[in-house]
Amino acid sequence: MMNRRHFLLAATSTGLISPVGVSAQAAPIAVRDLYNKDLSFSDLALSLEGKEITVTGFMAPPLKADGQFFVLTKKPMSVCPFCETEAEWPDDIMAIYTKRQFRVIPFNVRIEASGVLELGPLKDPETGFLSRVRLTAARYS
Amino acid sequence: MKTKFAASLVFALSATTAIAQDLPQAGNTWFTDGQAAIKAALAKQPNTSTAKNIIIMISDGNGVGTNYATRLFHGQQNGNYGDENVLPAETFPNLALVKTYNVNAQTPDSAGTGTAMMSGVKTKAGVVGVNENANRGDCASIEGNQVLSMNDIMSAAGKATGVVSTARITHATPASAYANSVDRNFEDSVPEGCTQQADIATQLIENLKDGTIQVAMGGGRRHFIGKDITDEEGKTGKRAEGENLIDMAKEMGAYYAWDQATFDAAPMDGSAPILGLFESSHMKYEADRSGEPSLAEMTGAAIKALSNNENGFFLQVEAGRVDHANHDGNLARVVRDGVAFAQAVALADELTNDEDTLIIVTADHEHAIAFNGYCGRGSDILGLCMGIDGAGIKHSNEALLAKDGKPYTVAGYLNGGGSVLREDVNWVGARPDLTQEEATDVDYLQQALVPTSSETHSGEDVAVYAKGPFAHLFDGTVEQNYIFHVMHHAATAE
Which residue does chain B place closest to A40, by CA atoms? Predict the structure, then answer.
């Protein structure tokens, strides 16, 4: 039986967090691949800045019905109205500025978005939403 | 052959009814382990010393099912099948099952359950530190209905007290240690005209100021600063413009920590109250943590700082994000925060003495999590349910298929974001096909049925584990408010 000292030792020596595999550029990349753990931009993100890429994730419920952008999250955006007064945006998200007005996809259906990768803070003039990573001229499926 | 075996069995039973060693299975490891467990159970002696210190450790949303998932995950990470793993609290000598409902809710929330544990009375869902006569959101109804918490009572008895959480320190469970509020959401403000109570962050600062609480660490920085104030990580606050409770705390002599470096430099000699606010909102999931202390680190620091009081201490520790990951339907993060909680429990045990410290480990409620069958030993708790190998121990390495011809995971949720029903096709759905790689991804959401934007709590029982003075009072099935009464008795017993 494991005692508490063994438990502490085992826990500290175990890599509990799987390293995130970085997808090849040919395949869609995940939102999380654009960030390091400290939320700085990953080498992959820096290498792809200004290039057309395809990212897989989930469409968060749009902030504005007829807006020009939506937020792509790494996992379905869950909102607990009983527990929280507002949506808790994760830090590692990206804004998808579409070529034309977009059709809302249910928040729990995985999509792929393609567009030109932009890095750096930008406040959306219409909604005030601050994004750090964006796809522009984007389309999605 | 059968007759011969039966005859020898009769002989064994008649000759030595009470001597287990004569049974044919006596050499089996399971049998000898069972005999050793009996010996240990018979040697147990109740500890009736007065508790100098009490630590209650609450893993939010960690019911019996969720705890089972963490037990298996931790064991599998350490290279065993998972089932045989023993989490630190599971070595404690005493336990009970806990009924968690709120007085007006079959499915409880953390505000009502926190109040039950911290004050000894069950109350309504969504309220903190008030009895059931107060109504959620109705400020006028707080008059005459406030209750005192264990922190209040232990502080009045001369002990140091603290509260630690990976959620916002103003969130429901930690708030139940120090606040009286008719709504858990009054974290940084109260509605216009509400003059009967202050917001929850203000109440925490008042508790630090009057010495009721000496250590408060968690997330929630945004509730302590105004909308016009930017914090150390570039995020603005939620309070009215110009309000800065962090500055107020510093001016009254508190040490303020906001990241790993300032945490590491915190005074451990009890010379100053400690206010740690490590995120704008909740602290990070353990799977994503960077630049801020773990729950175990915060627990260890709190115990060291509070131990300076010669009369002892009371500490509430919450693993707040086990609940949040369950709400996300994302078991991969649930179990990683579950292991972080287990590490905090092990450290609290390591740093204290069973003779004078009562440690209680529990949850406030369970979630709508459930487990499929019939999976073979060693099936990844996050992954696919593999078949049983009739000729061996480990699973068959072949995923079981449901009637739709698709594999399914060991764990699932009854509702939540992982629902297989789709809004865009009139809430009809089919289970997606699934690989082991997809199912064990850290961002994977286990499949669910009922489509809700957030997976829900459930009213199912949770366990309470205990060791130290009067831990033996935990036995059977108890109401959640009973936990307070054990703590109170242990601290005040002559």
Answer: B290
Cβ burial, residue A44 (10 Å; 0-12/13-18/19+): middle
Nearest Cα to B417, choosing from B381, B372, B447? B447
A106 vs B185: CB contact, 8 Å cut-off? no
Is residue B135 included in any domain, yes or no? Answer: yes
pLDDT for A101: 81
Residue B60 burial class via C-beta count within 10 angstroms: exposed 0-12, middle 13-18, buried 19 and up: buried
Of A1-10, B25-34, B369-378, least confident by mean pLDDT is A1-10
A102 CA to chain B: closest CA distance, Å? 15
Amino acid letter, residue A49: E
- Give me the domain span that covers residue B384: 370-455
| DSSP code of residue B102 | B
Q: State the residue range of the domain holding A102.
A: 24-140
The values of phi and psi at residue A127, to 5°, are -105, -15
Write the residue in B291, B343, B416 that is nearest to A11 by C-beta. B343
Query: From CA B121, how far away is CA B115, in angstroms rounded?
Result: 7
Confidence band, pLDDT 50/70/90 cuts, at residue A22: very low
**Cα(B181)–Cα(B193) distance, integer angstroms:** 15
CATH of residue A53's domain is: 2.40.50.870
The whole-chain average pLDDT of chain A stands at 78
B365 marked ligand binding residue = yes
User: Are residues B78 and B156 located together in one domain of the fold?
Assistant: yes
Active site residues of B: 110
Total of domains in chain A: 1
Q: Do A80 and B350 touch (CB under 8 A)?
A: no
3-state DSSP helix/strand/coil % of chain A, to nearest 5: 15, 35, 50
Check CB contact under 8 Å for B290 and A38. Answer: yes
Is residue B27 assigned to a domain? no
> What CA dihedral angle connects B360, B364, B368 and B370, to 10 degrees?
10
Helix H or strand E encompassing B281: none
Q: What is the pLDDT of residue B46?
A: 96
B64 within 8 A of B324, measured Cβ to Cβ: no
Residues in chain B closer than 8 A to A37 (CB atoms): 288, 290
Q: Do A8 and B291 touch (CB under 8 A)?
A: no
Q: Order the strands of the B369-371 sheet from edge to edge.
A: B369-371, B411-416, B448-451
